[in-house]
Amino acid sequence: MSSEQHLQHKRQALQKHYDLQAQKLKRLRHDYAIAADTLVRFQLEKQIEQTEAELHQLDRQLHELELSVSIGRLYRALLKLGYRKQAQAFRKFIQTHSIAAFLIYSSY
User: Fold this and answer.
1) Domain assignment present for 91
2) Residue 81 above 70 pLDDT?
3) How many CA atoms lie within 13 A of 58 on its CB side?
């Protein structure tokens, strides 16, 4: 299994877990809305806070995985375009024509 496939598999598992937690949060909020006992409402409130925190954590992990996958795709695309050769040519240009490189950079 390639690293991208592994990341996709991990993302799918995290997404399933996220969906389950979102469903749990929805049910907890529903139960909180109809609960009459203050002790039960307090317990539900704490469970809602914990579930929201876990959802936030899962959302952050999903975002990081999606970023990793997109960075990998970008890197492979740059390699197909000959990024390394272009970077080496640019370094050589900077070393030989440092003033011109400065003027090009400062014009942006």
Assistant:
1) no
2) yes
3) 19
Residue type, 17: H
17 lies in a domain?
yes
Q: pTM of the full predicted structure? A: 0.67
Q: Considering only CA atoms, which of 77, 79, 65, 82 is closest in space to residue 4? A: 65
Q: Report residue 62 as tokens.
A: 């999903």
Q: Which domain holds residue 17?
A: 3-81
Q: Quick check: 31 and 44 in contact, CB under 8 A?
A: yes
CATH number at residue 25: 1.20.58
Number of compact structural domains in the chain: 1
Per-residue model confidence as pLDDT tens digits over 4-44: 788 889 999 999 999 999 999 999 999 999 999 999 999 99
